[in-house]
Design goal:
Helices cover about 80% and strands about 0% of the residues. With about 500 residues, it is an all-alpha fold. The N and C termini lie far apart (about 50 Å). The N terminus is likely disordered.
């Protein structure tokens, strides 16, 4: 399609809404959002099977998750800008096709290294597709209907997270076509084949006020993060050889080069990958750290929990998936309550939610450490509900709190930065938690200590980071809240 023939009313992407958006167009956009989030969570229940199939180390399975999150996170802003410039429907369609192809590559991966590479590419195509969902919904609906449309999207993404655990476990356990865990990726191919032609039903739009893409900045940031995550994941298994420390030093040098380059691009009137001036506001920079810390605890917990209940306790993938459901229900329930609590109590309610989240993590650690003859589901249910409830109370209003301190003209960039922090935080958390999990699990077994107890000890020890990270985030939120009150 010729971009010059895009209807004038849709070029700005904001000045005019489509009169009557097609229900099919909405459904396809929701499907794109669903599979992006589904594939983030579905891997959790499949990780033990992948590890067993490939005889993979924790570092390798950690990168299966972290690679997706890293690529998705660092390319989100670029994906949004590409859609603004070349057409959001076009980029959504390309992203959907790429996601289907890279999912197929994941499904046929012959070894762990190939799977990691395919997951990185899958995350990259997800970053091309996902920003277009938000942008197109904003264009397709007028202000009166926009809240409804985004509410449906939020519900869809929440269901995708739940389905990723429960349906994912069922898919792995069903062993369709003798494919085992591979089916969780292969299923995206027929979805893509059906969905890509139907993207024609989505109205095209682009922005007349487009900005360039700082590919060098993105490359520097990606290299810096990879050089940091690789030694954190591989170090515990390798015994922290010299190259791990050299890699972390190189990461610091890359981060420094990235910041220098961003300032240069800004001063020369270009469009940096990240507007570093945003971080001059203390509330935003501190809030970004809170987002990174909080989101570093989510993916890492699910990964370690999946290994605990499947590899340690011998549960099936479906049984493990259903164990995640109470936490997801708690999350959804708290997400509905959280905005009202913030309206009534102020932003300090976010810190309160984090305290509940920390209590849920602590309770889960104690429950895992004291597992006896009682069924696992019954023993862990209360802690999982509190954990999910606290997660919803803290995470749901957190993003609005951080972005809300930025003026409207920079809100889009701020939202992109925070979205990147979410994904990078998830990858960072997997890396850090792996140090404790692998270290404890790799100790010489104590005589009489069962495998279940060894995995329970490893889980509880690894979650010490999560507990401290959430408590630290709560303290920072309290400090931000007090500062904002002092300013007002």
């Amino acid at each position: 399609m010729n971009l010059d023939k895009v209807p004038a009313g849709t070029r700005t992407g904001q000045s005019r809404a489509i009169a009557r958006p097609s229900a099919f167009a909405l459904a396809i956009l929701l499907l794109g959002g669903f599979i992006t989030v589904f594939d983030l969570f579905v891997v959790n229940v499949a990780i033990p099977a992948i590890q067993s199939d490939f005889s993979a180390s924790f570092a390798e399975v950690g990168f299966v998750i972290a690679g997706y999150e890293l690529a998705f996170g660092v390319l989100l802003i670029a994906g949004g800008r590409l859609g603004d410039r070349y057409g959001r429907r076009r980029l959504f369609s390309l992203g959907m096709a790429g996601f289907a192809i890279t999912s197929f590559l994941c499904g046929i991966a012959p070894d762990a290294t190939s799977l990691i590479g395919a997951r990185f590419l899958q995350g990259a195509t997800g970053a091309i597709m996902f920003p277009q969902v938000y942008a197109l919904l904003r264009v397709m609906y007028d202000e009166a209907s926009r809240g409804w449309a985004f509410g449906i999207l939020g519900m869809t993404l929440g269901l995708a997270a739940i389905a990723g655990q429960v349906l994912g476990g069922l898919l792995v356990e069903s062993d369709l076509f003798s494919s085992g865990w591979r089916i969780i990726f292969l299923i995206n191919l027929p979805i893509g084949v059906i969905a890509v032609p139907l993207t024609r039903l989505i109205p095209e739009s682009r922005s007349s006020d487009t900005v360039g893409i700082d590919w060098l900045g993105i490359a520097l940031a990606t290299a810096a993060l990879l050089l940091l995550l690789l030694p954190l994941l591989e170090g515990p298994n390798a015994g922290w050889p010299l190259w791990t420390w050299a890699s972390m030093a190189a990461s610091l040098a890359m981060f420094t080069a990235f910041l220098v380059w961003q300032r240069h691009v800004t001063k020369s009137g270009g469009s940096p990958a990240i507007d570093v001036s945003l971080f001059r506001r203390t509330q935003f920079s501190a809030g970004s750290l809170v987002v990174l810390l909080t989101y570093s605890t989510s993916t890492s917990l699910f990964l370690c929990f999946a290994l605990l209940v499947q590899s340690g306790l011998g549960m099936t993938p479906f049984e493990a998936g259903t164990l995640f459901a109470p936490a997801s229900v708690g999350f959804v329930a708290a997400s509905l309550i959280a905005p009202k609590l913030v309206d009534r109590c102020g932003k300090i309610a976010v810190a309160g939610g984090m305290m509940v989240y920390a209590a849920g993590i602590g309770w889960l650690m104690m429950s895992v450490g004291n597992l006896g003859d009682e069924p696992v589901q019954r023993a862990l249910l209360p802690a999982l509900v509190v954990f999910g409830f606290g997660q919803g109370l803290s995470m749901t209003p957190l993003l609005n709190m951080v972005i809300g301190v930025i003026e409207d003209r920079k809100a889009g960039m701020a939202a992109g930065v925070i979205s990147t922090m979410q994904q990078v935080g998830g990858a960072f958390g997997v890396s850090v938690v792996g140090i404790f999990f692998v270290g404890i699990l790799g100790k010489k077994p104590v005589e009489g200590l069962s495998q279940a107890q060894r995995y329970a000890d490893a889980f509880s020890g690894a979650m010490t980071y999560n507990l401290l990270a959430v408590l630290s985030a709560a303290v920072i939120v309290i400090m931000i809240t007090r500062r904002m009150r002092g300013v007002s």
